[in-house]
Amino acid sequence: MSGFSDNLLFSGRWDHGKEYSRTSAPAAMVQFNAQAKELQFEISGEARFRMDEDGKQIAIISTDARDVYKVKTTGTASPHLYRLIKISESNPGGIFLYKVATDKSGKFLAPPKHNNRRIEFIGDSYTVGYGVEGQLGDPDSFVFKTTNTSKGYAFLLADGFRADFQINAFSGRGLVRNYDNIVPEWPVTRLYEYTVPGLAPEDLDKGVPDESLRYDFGSFHPQVIVIFVGINDFQGNPPYADKDEYKKAYVALLEKLRKAHPGVKFLLVSTKVWPNDDMTPTVKAVYDSQKALGKKDLEFVEVHTENTALHGHPSEHSQADLARTLRSIVARLGGWLSR
User: Is residue 299 part of a domain?
Assistant: First the structure.
């Protein structure tokens, strides 16, 4: 990374090398305090970023080929908190961040501190904020332009709690079966094992596994994990997921997370899917079986969304409403007072 790495606070899953940091996660973020008239980011990889100054958006950056992307600040002499938020998805793919710099007259200050609240989201396109800025009838090519994770329920929830967070979500993927059976060998459960899952399949498919991309589950311990996975298991063209296999995989994920994060609490989320509406009763069956075993670390909720955004996904209004719906449950699970 650059010489300024000590001044940066990273959120989400990042792989840090000597010359760059890389990620594919939606809402992966870099925060820093600085006094500057201009900020400079050397980045490669296709992505869209939101640039905030003191929590307010000041720019949208679209990246592709390796270049130095510049953003004008408000230019005031006082220090500000800046954050670079990756609002697009990379699956497959990823971005490489080589350097963060200010203009010559600018300077970095002490980095922001971690929060004592930590939350993780495991999900699919609903959690990514897929097409949230689009409309139902927009062309397929609008996916990149209209996906904005910072307008999705997961980011809104985490930001509202001022929590450290990870959003580990993958459009079109399910727990055991992907939408229309696309890339069946890479469901959520397998992608979840990697720090930069958008790049891991590329390396592995070439027969050269990059074990450095294996995620270290000891590096971030969430207090609450929101799991919203199953839409793609039971929607699209059949055949759909085997319900028993889905339940088995769900329980295995819960046990894996309990072992990795002792004391963690879970919120299991479901919604109506077409044509058979199989997701909710199947997730509820997992919840009921866990409660019957005496587990007291999880809650279940069924949510309803207004799917008027791109490709029938939740709209901005619906994503904000979803965040409000889940907020009190997450606060209770985390033992967090509202603020």
Answer: yes
The pTM of the full predicted model, rounded to 2 decimals, is 0.96
Question: In terms of domains, do 166 and 190 share one?
Answer: yes
Res. 228: pLDDT tops 50: yes
Q: Residue 218 in contact with residue 212, Cβ under 8 Å? A: no
Yes or no: say if 69 and 89 are a contact pair by the CB < 8 Å rule.
Answer: no
Which is it for the CA torsion 274, 276, 277, 283, positive or negative?
A: negative
Rounded distance, CA 11 to CA 56, Å? Answer: 18
Q: Does residue 329 have a pLDDT over 80?
A: yes
**Total domains present in the chain:** 2
Joined together, the tokens standing for residue 248 give 């088995």
Question: Is the model's pLDDT at 4 over the cut of 80?
Answer: no
Q: Are 245 and 176 in contact (CB under 8 A)?
A: yes
Please give the single-letter amino acid code of residue 217.
F
**List of long-range contacts for 102-106, beta carbons under 8 Å, 24+ apart:** 102/34, 102/35, 102/36, 102/38, 102/39, 102/40, 103/36, 103/37, 103/38, 103/39, 103/40, 105/36, 105/37, 106/34, 106/35, 106/36, 106/37, 106/38, 106/39
Count how many residues are written for the chain.
Answer: 339
- Containing domain of residue 55, as a range? 5-108
β-bridge mates for residue 51, sequence order = 59, 84
Strands (E), 189-315: 224-228, 265-271, 298-303
pLDDT at 1 over 80: no
φ/ψ (deg, to 5) at 313: -100, 165
pLDDT at 272 over 80: yes
Report percent pLDDT > 90 for the chain: 91
